Amino acid sequence: MKKIQMVDLQGQYEQIKDKINTSLQEIMETSAFINGPEVQKFQKELEEYLDVKHVIPCANGTDALQIAMMGLGLQPGDEVITADFTFAATVEVIALLQLTPVLVDVEPDTFNIDPEAIKRAITPKTKAIVPVHLFGQTANMDAIMEIAKEHNLYVIEDNAQAIGAEFHSREAKTYKTGTIGDVASTSFFPSKNLGCFGDGGAIFTNNDDLAHIIRGIVNHGMYERYHHDVVGVNSRLDSFQAAVLRAKLPNLDLYNEARKEAALKYDEAFAGQEHIVIPLRKGECDTHVYHQYTLKITNGRRDELVKHMNEKGIPCGIYYPIPLHSQKAYKDERYKEENFPVTNQLVKEVISLPMHTELTDDQIALISKTVIDFINS
Ligand SMILES: *Cc1c(COP(=O)(O)O)cnc(C)c1O
């Protein structure tokens, strides 16, 4: 059996090696390293795939979130509501822009931001909600969009973990995640569902004016060469990364399908286990692209299990071990422990198993057997 990895990038590369090597070679020969044709082509192709009017590539997913917030003109002191249970990048950029992060609890079954908690957190200063489609599952966008409309708030989707996932709205419309709110960010970090060979990110929006503003912000606030109308940043996707992404984008649905297949096999293996809760998939099959396959271990032995897996040479991860409201950088006396019962519990129970496009049946069988045998031992 091939060595089990948390993410197998090598295996995926082998399948599209010729295509990638040829494009990278071409870029070296033309020296179109920045803003070359590959970047423009990728942008167009991603717009088509997502069915969104504007994709603005940038340097990484954290920049994408920051730039989205800058583009909306959020001002210091504005309150931005987001999930307590997510990667720190989400709250980091809010704080960095001197906006006020307002962390709220998540749902125990989907791990996504809880719309009821959002409602309770709204004040006259609230300007935006940042739902994260965590672990690849679409957040409850019907409820979130309704709250946003009622309170006149922007919705910025952090789509770093869910590219390719779908959302079926109450009105029976289908959207790709990242095209539902006012603006969205994504990351092409190598281990994401659509990953490049370095750092990369993008912003999506259907709003023409916002897209124009953002295109200037990513390029030093320039709308006309050497005229700087707003304070911007330097945030670019380079041609090498765009070429890798162009080679992978046509396979994205297949990649997500492979992840789903693996998830279903894990589900089957863990069915009926008393102390193991499999990740709930809300809605139809395509609303979860399994960036992570995350179990809850409910008998208090999660940490022992991690140790056991490590000893057996099977990788696993804890996403995330500490609630954001308890992190040194984001602590605030406004936060009361009783408002975060779910996150406080999840950080003790979750464990993510190897999940990627190259997992084999015998690997899945071995991983799940190792978990089950230990939990029942
Ligand atoms: C990966 C990730 C980001 C940041 O993306 P980078 O490209 O690493 O900057 C932001 N939000 C979430 C939820 C992520 O998983």
UniProtKB/TrEMBL annotation:
Family membership: Belongs to the DegT/DnrJ/EryC1 family.
Modified residues (N6-(pyridoxal phosphate)lysine): K192
GO terms of biological process kind: polysaccharide biosynthetic process
Protein name: DegT/DnrJ/EryC1/StrS family aminotransferase
InterPro entries named among the record's database cross-references: DegT/StrS_aminotransferase (IPR000653), PyrdxlP-dep_Trfase (IPR015424), PyrdxlP-dep_Trfase_major (IPR015421), PyrdxlP-dep_Trfase_small (IPR015422)
Assigned keywords, A-Z: Aminotransferase, Pyridoxal phosphate, Transferase
GO molecular function list: pyridoxal phosphate binding; transaminase activity
SUPFAM superfamilies per UniProt: PLP-dependent transferases
Name of one Pfam family that matches: DegT_DnrJ_EryC1
Active site: K192 (proton acceptor)
Signal peptide segment: none
